[in-house]
Design brief:
By secondary structure, this protein is of the alpha+beta class. The radius of gyration is 17 Å and the shape is globular. It has a single domain, classed as Bira Bifunctional Protein, Domain 2 (BirA Bifunctional Protein, domain 2), CATH 3.30.930. About 30% of the residues lie in helices and about 25% in strands. Strands 1, 2, 6, 7, 8, 9, 10, 11 and 12 form a nine-stranded mixed beta sheet that branches. Strands 4-3-5 form a three-stranded mixed beta sheet, with no helix packed on it.
């Protein structure tokens, strides 16, 4: 049996993709996937410098409105930054199609998988990405005491689902200009920082990261054991189903 990665189309943009164009293309592809007219898609890209406001964004978290263009987004989550040096991965998967380890119509499971995917990619480069209860995304500990020392976010997640086809996805900081995060409260979470693979001393190229994303895809999205672990965590945290999610 072939891998799920082989059944899904993979696309890598060779230039910066404007945000509105990306959203329009995702919406068209989601409709085509639902209609059975196109395969599922993983789209790897970078955006020009901009902020996006998710469905839970608070106006007060946009600290410097004139710094960069701001786009309202239908994804879950709050404000985040996108720009060159950040690997954005838009993931368009049909949650109703039965596959090994995939729990149908489970948005919480999908969010868990996106986090797990980033964690496994980071591990390939010697970075310990971690989850934090109540804070979506992937974090890197600054010190040994999680309870008293702030964390730095390295990967963000924002998801939307239409007719049970997912879109939007994740943003992994490879080597972006971190100074632009000063214009927002990232994901509405104050008191913590942001980081990148480059800031942690890892000189990875986008091609290196893309290869790791492809290599670990099946480990997460076609793994019954991964899904069983996710369901335990989702149940404990009261994860939502069928709603935009992110952070």
């Amino acid at each position: 049996m072939g891998s799920r990665a082989d059944a899904v189309e993979w696309r890598v943009a060779d230039a910066l993709v404007p945000y509105e164009r990306a959203v329009a293309e995702m919406e068209a592809r989601v409709a085509a996937i639902y209609a059975g007219a196109a395969p599922e898609l993983v789209w790897l890209l970078e955006h020009p410098p901009l902020y996006t406001a998710g469905t839970s964004a608070q106006a007060g978290d946009l600290l410097q409105p004139a710094r960069l263009p701001v786009f309202k987004s239908g994804r879950g989550g709050q404000y985040t930054y996108h720009g060159p040096g950040q690997r954005v991965v838009y993931v368009m998967l049909d949650l109703t199609r039965p596959r090994l380890g995939q729990h149908q119509r489970d948005v919480g499971c999908h969010v868990w998988r996106l986090e797990e995917w980033m964690i496994r990619v980071l591990a390939r480069f010697g970075i310990a990405g971690e989850r934090r209860t109540g804070r979506a995304g992937v974090w890197v500990a600054r010190g040994r005491n999680e309870a008293t020392e702030p964390d730095d976010k390295i990967g963000a997640i924002g998801v939307r689902v239409r007719r049970w086809v997912t879109y939007h996805g994740l943003a992994l900081n490879v080597a972006p200009d971190l100074s632009h995060y000063a214009g927002i409260v990232p994901c509405g979470i104050a008191g913590h920082g942001v980081t990148s693979m480059a800031a942690l001393g890892v000189a990875a190229t986008m091609a290196d990261v893309d290869a790791a994303l492809r290599d670990t895809f099946d480990d997460v999205f076609a793994s019954a054991s991964a899904s069983e672990t996710s369901l335990s965590r989702i149940a404990a945290e009261g994860g939502a189903r069928g709603e935009p999610a992110g952070g």
